[in-house]
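$ ./design --mode recover --in tokens.txt
reading tokens...
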């Protein structure tokens, strides 16, 4: 699903809809892989989509060429998003700067096995805001010019 580079602010009015209202419809979808891209997405809308996908059978999510704008909603008591095995992020920028991975992680159920981050605008994650990816077996950061000569140690958890 490509947004054509448009802002998706117009869809914010449906963000507070309880996803349980359409849980049966989402459960009936046989979507295992989903790619979203080429849009400006308010963080509230992205979180609402993740909450709705929590009812799906989705295993692989790719976010590509996205600009996530605005603050994220308050952290949930427990993850309500999808139980992904693979998450791929390519050229995704976040209004929150370096804290984006920790904020995104809070909305995903545990069990992520592969994390691919390419062309990241920031890889300086504050370690205090990250939980352990206990099931993670693959981490691909290979297409990130921002790593520079100093490599991973200087970029991750400064």
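writing sequence...
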């Amino acid at each position: 699903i490509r947004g054509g580079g448009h802002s998706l602010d117009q869809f914010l009015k449906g963000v507070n809809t309880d996803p349980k209202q359409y849980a049966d419809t989402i459960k009936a979808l046989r979507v295992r892989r989903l790619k979203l891209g080429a849009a400006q997405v308010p963080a509230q809308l992205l979180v609402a989509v993740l909450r709705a996908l929590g009812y799906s059978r989705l295993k692989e999510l790719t976010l590509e060429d996205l600009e996530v704008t605005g603050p994220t909603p308050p952290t949930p008591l427990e993850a309500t998003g999808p139980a992904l095995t693979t998450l791929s992020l390519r050229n995704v920028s976040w209004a929150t700067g370096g804290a984006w991975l920790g904020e995104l992680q809070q909305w995903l159920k545990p069990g992520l096995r592969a994390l691919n981050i390419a062309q990241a605008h920031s890889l300086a994650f504050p370690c205090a805001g990250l939980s352990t990816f206990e099931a993670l077996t693959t981490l691909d950061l290979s297409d990130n010019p921002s790593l520079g000569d100093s490599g991973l140690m200087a970029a991750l958890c400064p």
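exit 0
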